[in-house]
Amino acid sequence: MSDTLSRLRGELIAAGQFFHARGWVPATSSNFSARLGAEEILITSSGQHKGRLDDNGFLRADLQGVSLETGKRPSAETGLHTLMYRRDPAMGSVLHTHSVNATVLSMRLEEVVLAGYEVQKAFPGVETHESLLVIPVFPNSQDIPALAAEVNAYLDAHPQTVAYLIRGHGLYTWGATVADTLRHIEALEFLFECVYRQLLLDR
């Protein structure tokens, strides 16, 4: 466990630095997690600047979102992470970011439809640019259990979903490993910028 804990902390710290350099995790926004075991995750603790994370910026939590470390408080949105780990035992990481493009698109669209872009092939099971990816937008809410239930129902109905947006808030995506999930964030941010620029050109 100690080797896995150290490795995953290092991977999430590096992810935070990568995202911060691109302006995708401003101030103390965003939260990152990775699976430690069948019933345990590693997640950023509340109030951490994700571009300046160190080993103390994390806590262990169970799959109900309860901190396993005295004196450390998980993010208010931990329930959106634990939902994904409970849904899929193979889930290895969940990353949440707050880029400008993701936030603006979430304010203007009911869903982001991606079609015709080669970069869509960054996602598992997507083998052609002719595929269609739909990124749903959920209303922002401080009631995380209710929001998690809404996300869960949507994913039950649309199991091929690769990510979602929360209106005026940001992006959630997931993968088998931290590296996979980071790739999804990078691909989505490229695609969101394409959509944003296309909307400007279409005006």
What tags apply to this protein structure?
about 200 residues; alpha+beta; 8-stranded mixed β-sheet; 8 strands; globular
Strand content: 15-25%
Low-confidence stretches: none
- Report the total helices: 5
- Kindly state the mean pLDDT as a whole number? 93
Q: Structural class of the helices, strands and pairings? A: alpha+beta
Radius of gyration: 16 Å
Structure, described:
The chain is an alpha+beta fold and 203 residues long. It contains five helices and eight strands. It has helices spanning 2-21, 78-87, 100-108, 144-157, 178-201; strands at 31-37, 40-44, 58-62, 93-97, 111-115, 132-138, 163-166, 170-175. The chain has an eight-stranded mixed β-sheet with strand order 3-2-1-4-8-7-6-5, sandwiched between helices. The longest helix has 24 residues, at 178-201. The chain is globular.
List the helices and strands and how they pair.
Elements: H1 2-21, E1 31-37, E2 40-44, E3 58-62, H2 78-87, E4 93-97, H3 100-108, E5 111-115, E6 132-138, H4 144-157, E7 163-166, E8 170-175, H5 178-201
Parallel strand pairs: 6-7
Antiparallel strand pairs: 1-2, 1-4, 2-3, 4-8, 5-6, 7-8
Give a short overview.
Helix content is 38%, strand content 22%. It has helices at residues 2-21, 78-87, 100-108, 144-157, 178-201; strands at 31-37, 40-44, 58-62, 93-97, 111-115, 132-138, 163-166, 170-175.
